[in-house]
Amino acid sequence: MRTSSNPAFKSLPKGGHANFNYGQPPGGSFGAGGQAPTAPKQAGRPLTIDDVVTKTATTLAITIGTAAATYFVAGPQAIALALPAALVGFVLALVNIFKKKVSPALVIAYSAVEGVFLGGISYMFASMVNPGIIMQALAGTMGVFAAMLVVYKTGAIRVTPKLTKWIIGAAAGAFTLMLINLVAGFFVEGGLGIRDSDGGPLAIGFSLLCIGIAAFVFLLDFDEADRAIKNGVDAQYSWYIAFSLMVTLIWLYLEILRLLSYLQND
């Protein structure tokens, strides 16, 4: 049985409905998740692609809306909101992953809180570099998402068990390096240098690596959603799929934003 990189898919039902296992980037554990909820027996209609698109669009709109409100209304104070929002978002992500039943309210809450976090982070980067970097990062994120969707739909890259293991291993390695770098930063200025604010070659290379991994995670997310639809998973699980896609989108946006800041750093 193939396992996804995204822990949210751990909450999809197993057995007769679909065989799912789900990375909370950033900060999550790839390939690790909570117990699968008990699948409701004939509780509703089966999942469709429209359900996935609608719920994903809803969560994305909430995140963008709260991010824009935080950015434009809070102003400089938005930066101070980033850290607490990140912590709350992390807790909500864990609850969504480990909760046995689907909770649209929790997914919506996660999307809203992450919007506050992104609004604060975006304001910080806009102040450090230039305001135009935000639209560039958004365009880059949507471009990568669209490109990987085309790659998946055309079958240019097939999601095989071997590829899945490679992506999960690469993601786990990347986040392990991030943690080591964070700890090393307490003892050595700049840590390992993979998150150097000056944008050295190592930092740029690591950001490119993370962007590449995040792009391939989309393939796993698309494949899990496709298999959920084919296996007749209950429609309410579209909220879990939307949540997993949002996790990957947020990670990708942050990595592209960071890379752009390196490239535009004087």
TrEMBL record:
The chain crosses the membrane at residues 52-73, 79-98, 105-126, 132-154, 166-188, 200-220, 240-260. Keywords: Membrane, Transmembrane, Transmembrane helix. This is Putative YccA/Bax inhibitor family protein. The keyword Mitochondrion does not apply. InterPro entries: BaxI_1-like. It holds the Pfam family BaxI_1. It comes from Actinopolyspora biskrensis. The keyword Transmembrane applies.
